[in-house]
Amino acid sequence: MTTENIDMTDFLPEKKYIDISVGESVRIVREMNELSRPRLAAITGISEATLRAIENDQLELTIEQATVLANALQVTPAILMTTGVRENTKSAA
């Protein structure tokens, strides 16, 4: 088969890839749970200053912190440590 015979309209377009940092993931999930940083600090025992530094990518999130935060935010640690997501191009409606 040669490339001359391929109709590119037969293929789905590539989904966009949104690059987000670990800190952004933590902040987004925290906000989705409608928790303030001080409230999350109180729940987890992780200081507000540490949470701020993690969310601003000034401090690397440890596995232990990710586990504690994930439990409080009701997600898996992998969700918080993900550094990119595929953009959903179809609506959920």
Feature tags:
5 helices; 2 strands; mainly alpha; 93 residues; 434 Repressor (Amino-terminal Domain)
Q: What is the topological layout?
A:
Elements: E1 17-19, H1 22-32, H2 37-44, H3 48-55, H4 63-73, H5 77-81, E2 84-86
Antiparallel strand pairs: 1-2
In words, what does this structure look like?
A two-stranded antiparallel ribbon has the order 1-2. The longest helix has 11 residues, at 22-32. It has 5 helices and 2 strands, in the order E-H-H-H-H-H-E. The protein is elongated and about 60 Å long. It has one domain (16-86): 434 Repressor (Amino-terminal Domain), CATH 1.10.260.40. Mean pLDDT is 84; it is low at 89-93. 46% of the residues lie in helices and 6% in strands. The relative contact order is 0.22. By secondary structure, the chain is mostly helical. It has helices at residues 22-32, 37-44, 48-55, 63-73, 77-81; strands spanning 17-19, 84-86.
In short:
This protein has 93 residues and is mainly α. The protein has helices spanning 22-32, 37-44, 48-55, 63-73, 77-81, and strands spanning 17-19, 84-86.
Q: Output the CATH homologous superfamily.
A: lambda repressor-like DNA-binding domains
CATH architecture field: Orthogonal Bundle
Roughly how much helix do the residues carry, as a percent range?
A: 40-55%
pLDDT < 50 stretches? 89-93
Can you tell me the CATH topology? 434 Repressor (Amino-terminal Domain)
